[in-house]
Design a protein that fits this description.
Layout (H helix, E strand, L loop, with lengths): L40 H8 L20 E7 L2 E2 L2 E4 L2 E4 H13 L5 E7 L17 E5 L8 E6 L4 E5 H12 L7 H11 L6 E4 L2 H5 L3 H4 L16 H4 L3 E2 L3 H8 L3 H29 L18 H8 L4 H8 L20 H15 L10 H7 L7 H13 L5
Parallel strand pairs: 1-5, 5-6
Antiparallel strand pairs: 2-3, 3-4, 6-9, 7-8, 7-10
Helix pairs in contact: 3-4, 8-9, 9-14, 10-11, 12-13, 12-14
Length: about 400
Amino acid sequence: MYDDLAYNVQNNKPGKIYNDVNGTDVYTGVPKDYIGADVTAEHFLAVITGNSSGVPQGKKILKSGPKDHVFIYFTDHGSVGLIAFPNGYLYADQLADALDKMHNKKQYGALTFYLEACESGSMFYKHLPEDVEIYSHTASNPTEPSYACSHDPQLKAYLSDCWSLAWMKDTEAHDPTEETLQQQFENVRGAVSTSESCQYGDRSLASKFTVADFMGQLSGLRRQPVPTSLTLADLQHAVPSWDVDLAVARFAHPQHTAQYDVEYELEQRRAADYRAAAITRALLPFTAARCPAGTCGAGSCACFRSCAARGATAFVCAALCCPYGDPPHSGCEPEVTPAVDFGCYRELITEHELHCGPFTSYSLKNTRDLALLCTIPRVDLTHAKFVIRQVCATNSLA
């Protein structure tokens, strides 16, 4: 954990963290092995692969073997094919390589990975094999955001993500030695209406193992009533994770401060969206005339035809040519999703952050267009980086 919440100046209950409105403190007594600058993608990969030389001296690593059950829960911001760390990103191909290394080293008998992030399905879809004894449950499918829930007006913050809140409440409501991972998936999917929970990898593990097989028996946990869905209070102000900063600004007090914060956030968003659109239009001029609503699926508009002529798939063309923010619904396993060239993707993101500054929790969603560019044949990477430098030079807002 980064450990920037409990004693943050904006936390009006110092030293305490809550994950539900009217809930109990979940911070006190929690062991913290990696905090602050030590929370990096590189250290995460070293920890799970048992690489002691990849972490600071004396820091813990996973020392599991072929008879162990390993549970990994990760939550942060994300986008297509990546999840965010406080300073940097972990890409789907890098995570896939690490999990493959764990399998080859026989570091587990079975592994369960719970992932909360926008487009979290994209970290496993077409990256996680079905024959390596790994089961994954994600907060969203490969093309949609996950949502924040439980806005607390006193703390002036969102306390949870909807999917994480749902699986934790479900765990509290059942005997973990009896509930299977599959039952938990079905309960959570039924409880969360904001995004689509998905399963990847070896799904047979979900029926074979119980929650306790990975999370322990959780002795002493006070059982809560079984939730059939998240409550109205949980969902009342639910927003996509990338909209949290704006929503919090709108809830803030006093009113004049809130108005300033809202305008500042909106200005940042307009700059980020303008820059993303400018980069895409410069590299793919046909996107300047995106398809009218209702015509993308048919592939009949000029934007779609020009995109297809460059060798892009129908899925990519629909995503680029449909009005932004309304990509085609993919489900958990979109059949026509093309492979991202992650070397290209990393270079473009690095170039963008070097010249425009770091992506924000909102503008990170715009990396989607960079990922799409890295699926299209005949995209000149050198020219793409030049365009990013030129566009970013006109505006320094991230």
